[in-house]
Specification:
The chain is of the alpha/beta class and 535 residues long. It has helices spanning 39-53, 62-65, 75-78, 92-96, 138-156, 163-181, 216-231, 251-264, 278-290, 318-329, 332-336, 359-368, 383-388, 393-400, 417-425, 436-440, 443-452, 459-475, 483-498, 507-515, 524-534; strands spanning 3-11, 14-19, 28-32, 79-83, 99-102, 185-189, 200-203, 206-210, 239-243, 270-275, 295-299, 308-311, 340-344, 375-379, 405-410, 428-430. A hairpin with a 2-residue loop joins strand 1 and strand 2. It is elongated, with a radius of gyration of 33 Å. The protein starts with a strand and ends with a helix.
């Protein structure tokens, strides 16, 4: 059973809404958009339609269902739904199974049963009359599960089935789904339904952990999994509608839950969810990419529903995902985005493999993390790449996070004064010293290193070793300020003289892990570096 189209007229939020062109291959339909845009109202319309088609009777409340209560319209004037394989009017059993609903207000914090009573068909189960009503199912599903187990034992199960096999048949699927979401949580029994009957779990080293002691997220996920496993025995050709299935769960669990729910829905059926969860949306995108045509996205955001609106499935473009993220994150994207990004020299981690990718950026971020937490350094390639903004940081980053400032920073190297002036005119900052190593191996930093390992008396010798290494480098034809060319020798001499271990396995690791944290405010080298970059 799948929905082809929906037409709502003067119903709640909608003056004239048409939803059409839902692909017949779609097993999952995602209603996206901010709170208050009408996602739950659509489910209210489908719920009223379901009651009418099954002749249960629509609890039509003009003050709740109608957009303009004074019009006094009937449900059939407001709601029209087209479904494939529509059962005939006289097949009420099939019509009662066409749609199944879960409201967003699911809460069953605790239950214990001491008796077994007859429980009617799932299609006759009265849970709520509107999508704003409380929807409690766990205790009822416990009774239904135990009743089904008794029926299987005495009427349906093969005589050769062992007790262990039967327990696995009753609980195995629910247990496996739950354990995939929460690896430390294992459903192990139904307890004794005639004495303190409830679901029992193993959680870590705790055995027979009661359902009431689960966390809110565990209960919320377990509720939906249990409900689908139990109800699909009857609702085997159905459109399942779940409003905000992500309630009380972390982002990662939300996505994993959606995958489990899609897997539990029988193949002829369809799952509709209303969500603005990042986890759910991300998983829906993954499912869509893995199986094109099986997921349809309906975007309720940005429409004026006081006017006629036609919604068709949208292609999940970057614009769509930006809209989804703006709803889910609101101002959080700006909160976690840095105020300033400094693009410096260095190979980005995504561009090259190896432990020394992002070397300069990592050092800069360590040096300025305390005084400038709103600044982030990023690798932009070699000096020409940074100068020409080859990776388009100055264009892309402000577009992603409004208000972000982007600076470009290159080493001084052998640039002439006129070149530096020209770079400044292009908004490009040039270091006051030849390269980053000149600051990291500064005498003040080496002195602080000796002090940090309780060998302050060795500072003059360490500095002398540095000068000797630089002199040897100059003798090889390098510039007097080219500390980078002498860095390997300086690193080796420092380790030997101070007896250092665990300070970095090579020269660059030593700079990142040991020297960068020592370059701090108050040092001449720090203040000069800060002034060179930020003015």
């Amino acid at each position: 059973m799948k929905i082809r189209s929906i037409k709502l007229t003067q119903f709640k939020r909608f003056a004239d809404l048409t939803i059409t062109d839902i692909p017949p291959t779609a097993k999952l339909v995602v209603l996206a958009g901010p709170n208050g845009c009408g996602k739950s109202s659509l489910f209210d319309a489908l719920y009223s339609y379901s009651k009418a088609m099954s002749q249960v009777g629509v609890n039509w409340d003009v003050s709740y269902h109608q957009r303009a209560p004074d019009d006094r319209l009937g449900w059939s004037q407001c709601i029209a739904v087209t479904m494939d394989n529509m059962p005939p009017k006289d097949d009420l059993a099939a019509r009662k199974r066409m749609l199944y609903f879960r409201s967003a207000y699911r809460n069953d914090p605790d239950f214990r049963l001491n008796t077994l009573t007859r429980i009617g068909s799932a299609t006759e189960e009265p849970r709520f009359t509107r999508m704003i009503d409380t929807d409690v199912t766990v205790s009822v599903n416990y009774q239904r599960l135990t009743s089904q187990a008794l029926q299987d034992v005495f009427a349906l199960e093969d005589g050769g089935t062992t007790m262990a096999e039967f327990r696995e048949k009753v609980l195995g699927e629910i247990r496996d789904c739950t354990r995939r979401l929460f690896p430390g949580l294992v459903l192990n029994s139904l307890g004794n339904p005639l004495e303190d009957g409830t679901f029992r779990f193993d959680k870590g080293e705790t055995k027979h952990f009661s359902y009431k002691n689960l966390s809110g997220g565990e209960k919320a996920a377990f509720d939906l999994i249990l409900d689908l496993v139990v109800k699909r025995r009857v609702y085997d050709d159905t459109v399942f509608c779940i409003d905000e299935p992500e309630a009380h769960m972390s982002t990662r669990t939300q996505g994993q839950l959606l995958e489990e729910l899609v897997g539990l829905v029988p193949d002829p059926s369809q799952l509709w969810i209303a969500t603005h969860s990042i986890g759910m949306m991300r998983k829906a995108r993954d499912l869509s990419e893995a199986s094109p045509g099986t997921v349809a996205f309906l975007d309720f955001g940005g429409h004026d529903f006081d006017k006629p609106v036609t919604l068709t499935p949208v292609r999940p473009t970057r614009v769509f995902w930006e809209s989804v993220l703006s709803v889910a994150l609101d101002d959080l994207a700006l909160l976690v985005a840095p105020g300033t990004v400094v693009v410096c020299e260095g190979s980005p981690a995504g561009a090259v493999a190896g432990k020394n990718a992002d070397h300069d950026a990592t050092c800069y971020n360590t040096i300025f993390s305390q005084e400038m937490p709103d600044v982030r350094f990023m690798s932009g390639g070699n000096s020409q790449d940074v100068a020409k903004d080859r990776l388009s940081f100055t264009i892309v980053l402000p577009a992603i996070a409004k208000g972000i400032k982007v600076r470009r920073l290159i080493d001084r190297d052998d640039h002439a004064p006129n070149d530096i002036t020209s770079f400044a005119g292009q908004g490009i900052t040039v270091l006051s010293r030849r390269h980053l190593e000149c600051y990291l191996f500064d005498d003040e930093v080496l002195t602080a290193l000796c002090l940090s390992v309780s060998k302050p008396a060795e500072a003059p010798s360490v500095i002398a070793d540095k000068q000797a290494a630089i002199a040897a480098s100059v003798a090889r034809g390098n510039a007097p300020d080219d500390v980078k060319s002498a860095a390997g020798t300086i690193y080796g001499d420092i380790k030997r003289r101070l007896g250092l271990v665990g300070v970095g396995n090579d020269t660059r690791a030593f700079q990142r892990e040991t020297l960068a944290p020592l370059l701090r405010p108050g040092m001449v080298a720090y203040d000069e570096l800060k002034r060179a970059i930020f003015g």
